[in-house]
Fold this sequence. Notes:
2 copies of one chain form a homodimer. Chain A is of the alpha/beta class.
Amino acid sequence: MSALTQPSVQPSQQVSPMFFFENMNAYQKTAALVAxxxxxxxxxxxxxxxxxxxxxxxxxxxxxxxxxxxxxxxDFLTVHGLMVKHNAASPVAWYEPTPDTGxxxxxxxxxxxxxxxxFLAPPPMHELVKELVGAVRxxxxxxxxxxxxxxxxxxxxARGMAPFTGASARPMAELVNSGGPxxxxxxxxxxxxxxxxxxxxxxxxxxVALDGAAVxxxxxxxxxxxxxxxxxxxxxxxxxxxxxxxxYDAVLVTNFLxxxxxxxxxxxxxxxxxxxxxxxxxVVLEFAPNDDRISPAIPASFAMIMLTATxxxxxxxxxxxxxxxxxxxxRGIERHDPPTPQxxxxxxx
Amino acid sequence: MSALTQPSVQPSQQVSPMFFFENMNAYQKTAALVAxxxxxxxxxxxxxxxxxxxxxxxxxxxxxxxxxxxxxxxDFLTVHGLMVKHNAASPVAWYEPTPDTGxxxxxxxxxxxxxxxxFLAPPPMHELVKELVGAVRxxxxxxxxxxxxxxxxxxxxARGMAPFTGASARPMAELVNSGGPxxxxxxxxxxxxxxxxxxxxxxxxxxVALDGAAVxxxxxxxxxxxxxxxxxxxxxxxxxxxxxxxxYDAVLVTNFLxxxxxxxxxxxxxxxxxxxxxxxxxVVLEFAPNDDRISPAIPASFAMIMLTATxxxxxxxxxxxxxxxxxxxxRGIERHDPPTPQxxxxxxx
Lengths: 349, 349
């Protein structure tokens, strides 16, 4: 439920937007099935003679694809019941077709359904499949990524996604709330809802919201609507290059790290570290799958979105995210799980 | 499992291609969700004051769409858990949002997720949504339908879909088998697998396979591979206009009636009736949902494919199909349910 929601439109019972993620992203199941057929992943798995020929690395070599791309595709197919993953949390995880997919998707079988997508998938799906096959081969997006903070897609994001934030933003605001005066930096603030939730929780807090100038207009509207505009200030610029200032009690890093590779994130987190007061906190919000990378379904499937939409991004596990924080100078890493598909991770300077 | 499958590649356990339908068509869930948001179906349902304002006819009027289009969209959303259908098998069936969809998809709510698809759906999905919105408005496809029997898409169909046929074709062949000499007409024969199954079941049967000339080459290959080419003969032409000849013991009408409106089907079935011997049988294979049109999931969802791909087609219920047969002169209508999502319906001359 949205933090924007007014009491008069509170639902009469518990509601959840999970149906929206599931159905909105359902097209990826079609794309993943057809991409796996095109890459002959199932054929390779059936003909492999040992588990060592069924790892993401081995499959990548056999199919001429990128290990990361194969790993994310096979994890996605596992989440959706088309494969089984063994030793899932280990570096030598390997994949196995189910009886159904092994029988019908082995190209060598006369029963193979490998030609059916040509008739069944409408032309726009073929385009999505092509993008996914390209991303699996390359290990990253083959389309143009909206990296610039003023890309109009980030305005669409800010306008469209605010209603999803409430159930993560309220618990985050409680964790951040010191009960006294606080200076908070909200990086990649977008709709502004995470910083605004902190302002609602603590009347003595001040927020600096960083994002592209066009995007910040959406955040400003929300801050005004929710009555906190007097304590909410804009900082327009690129999170990697703009001067944050110093002396912050908390820096919010929400849905940001999944766009970049770990080394870039660590460089960025060192900049966050420098902007904090001693004892100040980095507050990270992420889709963090378990170490098996196939559960829970929503954060595990999120890796597929990062594969197709970003050059180097991923859905990082809690273990990976805490390592990034530690490598950037943070200590006392804490994990909190709000009642949403996301995870909050705190690191202290 | 395919009738093409040789014993050496029989699976070691029971397998099913149902995973393929579910994942292949998963993109429709994305398209249906976004189309319903664009047409504001959920908003209209929330603000409606009585069940009579929540019928497909009432919604069609409120949204400026076609009743058939709205009915198929809402049935699909019901199958996939985004709506509830009341009095489902009656002519005054009406729809209700679930608590989740009523709360998050009512455009008037500050929590409305109605702007999220702009960011979340990739451009090719927007194209699919546009086609679906157009089809719901019009009550039929807004793209060009492959009506001609020589359209290359029917060759893709013949090459891609043969492996799906086995589990329906074998029980059909047993129903058709008279144990003696038989003359069988296989209309819209495509890959030829239904007629071929009859030839395998009865060594005294002869099949005339009707379809476009290019498509029949695929059927001919299959007849040869399966060792029945000497009893399998081609008849190239349009099922509505070509001369069938007369004196058939059985006429196979598989996956054909769903492309057309009932009146066209009845005219066609009268032609089938004329080609049969007295006592001969029309053998219809269809995706036939129950009268509620929301179960079973696969035949009920098939209506969505017909809405977006054909001018006037639909997934017809057993009740509708038996009425078409009776109106065309058939009697003794019988229903058989093979272990597949399809239904076999027999009518006797």
